[in-house]
Amino acid sequence: MPSRDEIFEKVKSALVDALGVDEDDVTPGATMVGDLGAESIDFLDIVFRLEKAFNIKISRGELFPEDVLSSSEFVTDGKVTPAGIAALKARMPFADLTKFEANPSVQNFANTLTVEDMVKYVASKLGQ
Amino acid sequence: MRWFWIDRYEEFIRGKHATAVKNVSLAEEHLHDHFPGVAIMPNSLIVEGMAQAAGLLVADAIDYNRRVVLAKVASAVFHFDAVPGDTIRFRAEILDLKPAGSLTKVTSTVGDRLQGEAELFFAHLEPGEGVPKLFESEELLRWLDQLHIYEVGRDESGQPLARPDW
Question: Do B71 and A18 touch (CB under 8 A)?
Fold first, then answer.
């Protein structure tokens, strides 16, 4: 099993390649969208690179729940409903959604995911 | 301007890799409009040639059942300018392929000199994802024929590619 630092280094390498950012910009607290400029298509690219780097399989929507965020069942007036929050938490146990819950506007979600969340996600996939 | 940035395939191995050529000619409009007086093939259009070479390889690999769209140029580096008289040879390779997208690596060479290298990421869109219709089958087949895909193409077991009966 790789250590947390080893996971971080590989995640960093994947993000540098996928997003064209400097290594120094990829800190644990950096947000994927706000700080690193990831767009929705980048998440698919990131999925490819993480799968290869860690030899894991990532299902569609597992890393970035675009289906929940665009669902009329879970979004009302641009805000994720309590049921939607529950769906996000179930889908993304690796992410800290506390701040997002305070203002669950769909637009805010983009600034919720951090590099650390990516590391936690990979660790969870590796069974750590 | 006709949006064709490869002239024909020389090699096409289903799901794996392909080589296509593009002959740069002074008769092409863009060579006169890009930098007047300095005829060079814009690298942005070379990326388009790379995307066509790789995109059709991907589309064939998924039986043309989704629209393959260049979603992202993950990286692109160019080492010199291609000019009229050059034959650019694109070699495209599929690095990863999934239902929703694919990652490819493409190089461009002129003679034995590496001109450019890029990683291109394609999204595979289904009808309904902003795609009313996948393609006009007659038009697509005509293009594939002009590119010699069914002359040089081989499947995974080395057999000639079957021309689709759309």
Answer: no
Q: Looking at residue B133, what is its pLDDT?
A: 76
Q: Are residues A41 and A5 in the same domain?
A: yes
- ipTM of the complex as predicted: 0.71
Domains and their CATH numbers in chain B:
8-154 (3.10.129.10)
Instruction: Tell me the pairing of strands A75-76 and B113-125.
Output: unpaired
Read off φ and ψ for residue B100, nearest 5 degrees: -90, -20
- Tokens representing residue B23 in the block: 């002959």
Question: What is the spatial distance between Cα B83 and Cα B87, in angstroms, rounded to a whole number?
Answer: 9
Cα nearest neighbour of B123 on chain A: A41
**Domain ranges, residue A48:** 1-60+113-128
Q: What's the residue count for chain A?
A: 128
* Contact indicator for A112, A91 with CB cutoff of 8 Å: no
Number of domains in chain A: 2
Contact check, Cβ <8 Å, A17/B100: no
Instruction: Point out the least confidently predicted range of A8-22, B32-46, B119-133, B143-157.
Output: B119-133
pLDDT value of residue A128: 60
B120 touches chain A (CB under 8 A): no
Q: What is the CATH classification number for the domain harbouring A19?
A: 1.10.1200.10
